[in-house]
Design goal:
Layout lengths: L1 E5 L4 H12 L4 E5 L7 H6 L7 E4 L4 E4 L1 H11 L10 H36 L7 H24 L10 H15 L9 H11 L5 H4 L18
Parallel strand pairs: 1-2
Antiparallel strand pairs: 1-3, 3-4
Helix pairs in contact: 1-3, 1-6, 4-5, 4-6, 5-7
The structure holds glutathione (GSH).
Organism: mine drainage metagenome
Protein name: Putative GST-like protein YibF
Pfam families: GST_C, GST_N_3
């Protein structure tokens, strides 16, 4: 049994929630607003960011979504999320790095960070419209790339569902919470995301509700 400190719209937290769900690992979720710097949380993770996974048996504390997912894959091997051989694992890691790096900086931070996280934080300045314009432009480049992959592969990294699909879905679902994914312009990406959305591991994310910010109706709809 685990305890997961997470922020519902944080893509890194979402990645770990989906991975725990895929591996059918029971966990107690605790919503953490990292900017509040609660002393009890800072004592667990002096780095101050979410997600943090506490392994209740033994009391180990793990931070960083990739480190957590690697730990889960080693300790709960079924189903494997990193691919069956070294080449597949390299491709899974490349794509996870792509989404957690470029997609996060170019899209998630510009859209979810500006429109939702700043509001949750009570940031005095409000959203930066220039950053939002960049996010709207960049998401189209990324959806082109995801579309290119989904037209050639069953799942993003190859034949098997992997952490690459989880990382991509974690970011896209965060952006979808604010209704900023132009799904109808990218039918192949929409088909891939519909398959992900119907997995039981996504259900808890589709039930998320950030106080004061309701998601669009299609967010939780499996036939969106
Ligand atoms: N590399 C980390 C990044 C985690 C991260 O950036 N978390 C953000 C929320 S999405 C955070 O906790 N930021 C600290 C803050 O807002 O104070 C991971 O993969 O877990």
């Amino acid at each position: 049994m685990f305890t997961l400190y997470h922020l519902p719209v944080c893509p890194f937290s979402r990645k770990v929630r989906i991975a725990l769900g895929e591996k059918k690992c029971a966990f107690e979720p605790v919503v953490e607003l990292p900017w509040e710097e609660r002393p009890e949380f800072t004592a667990l993770n002096p780095g101050g960011d979410v997600p943090v996974l506490v392994v209740n048996q033994g009391g180990a504390v793990l931070a960083d979504s990739m480190a957590i997912c690697e730990y889960l894959d080693e300790t709960c091997p079924e189903p494997p999320l990193f691919g069956a051989d070294p080449l597949q694992r390299a491709e899974v890691r490349r794509l996870v790095g792509w989404f957690d790096g470029r997609f996060n900086v170019e899209v998630t931070l510009n859209l979810v960070g500006e429109k939702l996280i700043k509001r949750q934080m009570g940031h005095p300045g409000g959203p930066d419209s220039r950053a939002i314009r960049i996010g709207y432009a960049r998401i189209r480049d990324h959806l082109d790339y995801v579309g290119w992959l989904t037209e050639r592969r069953r799942w993003l990294a190859g034949d098997s569902f992997s952490l690459a699909d989880i990382a991509a879905a974690a970011h896209l679902s965060s952006v979808d919470y604010i209704g900023d994914v132009p799904w109808d312009d990218y039918p192949a990406v929409k088909d891939w995301y519909a398959r992900i959305k119907s997995r039981p591991s996504l259900r808890p994310l589709l039930a998320d509700h950030v106080p004061g910010v309701a998601p669009p109706r299609h967010y939780a709809d499996l036939d969106f």
